[in-house]
Amino acid sequence: MAQHLPPQPHHSRMTDFAGHPLVVGVVPDQSPLVALTAVSLARATGAPAIYFAHVDTSRYADVERADGTVRHLSIDPDVDDEQWPEREAALLDLVGQWMSEEDVPWHFRYLAGRPDRALTHLARAVDAAAFVVGSHVRRHHRLRDFVNGSVSMQLSHRQHRPVIVVPVSVVDWEGRAPWE
Questions:
Q1: What is the pLDDT of residue 156?
Q2: Which end of the chain is more exposed for a tag (fewer CB within 10 A), N or C?
Q3: How far apart are CA 142 and CA 51, in angstroms?
Q4: Sheet holding 106-112, edge to edge
């Protein structure tokens, strides 16, 4: 029996950078370097827009719409999560601060579920050329925990668009990296 392989990266599946938007992952307390990198790349490639997106992992996407937005619900049906609109507003305000003096059009999407799947859905919906995400900064004790928790690693292995990882925290050569 032949093993089923998903469609693999190929030049015919590549979305040209020129004239296509970027999808940028947003988390609370994120460094503005991620947004500034996306702005620089958008200007260099003529991207018509940047789509900033936060994925709420405490919720799931009930309906995924063609424009990349979602209707989402709490994972726990017994808990009515009434704080998500405040989280969305705070993140929208954060992105607005980053982009207040920039001339690149931008949009914000509040998504739900697994970050790699939600960001991929948005990228497909807007025909994005690439993702821009911040480097993984949480400390892990095992390489497996680091790799499994990394959105950039999940994206780079589960879809065909390039993933640009912006370093937001580095260690010197004598220091320990998050996976060490």
A1: 79
A2: N
A3: 33
A4: 106-112, 50-56, 22-25, 130-134, 163-166
Cβ 34 vs Cβ 168: under 8 Å: yes
Whole-angstrom distance, CA of residue 62 vs CA of residue 111 = 11
Q: What is the spatial distance between Cα 161 and Cα 179, in angstroms, rounded to a whole number?
A: 25
Residue 158 counted as domain residue: yes
- Domain count within the chain: 1
User: Domain range for residue 57?
Assistant: 48-166
pLDDT at 180: 60
Q: Is residue 142's pLDDT more than 70? A: no
Per the document, the length of the chain is 180
Does residue 146 lie in a domain region?
Answer: yes
The answer to whether position 42 is within a domain reads: no
